[in-house]
Design brief:
The protein has a single domain, classed as 3-Layer(aba) Sandwich (Rossmann fold). It is built from 9 helices and 6 strands. It has helices spanning 14-26, 49-60, 71-74, 81-91, 103-108, 115-121, 134-141, 162-167, 177-185, and strands at 2-7, 31-36, 66-68, 97-102, 123-127, 149-152. The protein has a 6-stranded parallel beta sheet with strand order 3-2-1-4-5-6, sandwiched between helices. Strand 5, helix 7 (134-141) and strand 6 (149-152) form a beta-alpha-beta unit. The relative contact order is 0.18.
């Protein structure tokens, strides 16, 4: 199985690292890819992809079987999740591709572009969070696809986000030490200036 963790990773936090480490322990996978969005992605305050990729590579050095996929970074337009995973499937024919989502994303899945093709073509690893009853959501709204979902119990709650890091200049504890050093060296997010 190829596991894919998408996001803006602006910057990658210890929560991103912990989620990856948890999945690598719990899910048998040949490869684990962080999938950062490209520079064209419409998100305010998004720093250049080259920096987000470099920081993700620092995380990957601490994780077995982890790498960064550049599909969305190198794309000439913003890709949908389905389009990206279809490209990844072509790179790994015969492998099962599984995409990580949080329980909050599961609640919103029907609003995703091509969500039915996404569910039928790929597995979805769903993380429990915020006391959302994911079994009930799958039973009521995705019953015919329920074999496509892999449910993971939440691990220790982490009150960490990229936004918290960007908005609190004194919170270096929200990222790995190597990531913090990179941020200061390149004077990102108002640090190291």
């Amino acid at each position: 199985m190829i596991v894919v963790f998408g996001g803006s990773f602006n910057p990658p936090t210890i929560a991103h690292y912990e989620i990856a480490a948890h999945i690598l322990k719990k899910v048998p996978c040949q490869a684990f890819y962080f999938l950062p969005v490209g520079d064209a992605y419409p998100k305010k305050g998004l720093i250049a992809a080259k920096h987000r990729v470099a920081m993700l590579n620092l995380l990957c050095q601490q994780l077995e079987h982890a790498a960064v996929s550049l599909i969305e970074v190198q794309a000439t337009k913003v890709l949908t999740t389905y389009e990206t995973l279809t490209q990844l499937q072509k790179q790994h024919p015969g492998e099962t591709i599984a995409f990580i989502i949080g329980a909050d994303n599961l609640n919103d899945l029907e609003n995703w572009f091509q969500y039915e093709q996404l569910i039928t073509s790929f597995k979805l690893i769903v993380f429990r969070r915020d006391d959302i009853d994911i079994e009930q959501i799958i039973e009521k709204r995705f019953y015919e696809f329920k074999t496509q979902f892999i449910l993971l119990d939440a691990f220790k709650p982490l009150n960490v986000s990229s936004t918290m890091y960007r908005e609190n200049l004194n919170r270096s504890d929200l990222v790995l030490t190597e990531v913090e050093q990179y941020i200061r060296q390149h004077q990102l997010y108002g640090r190291g200036e």
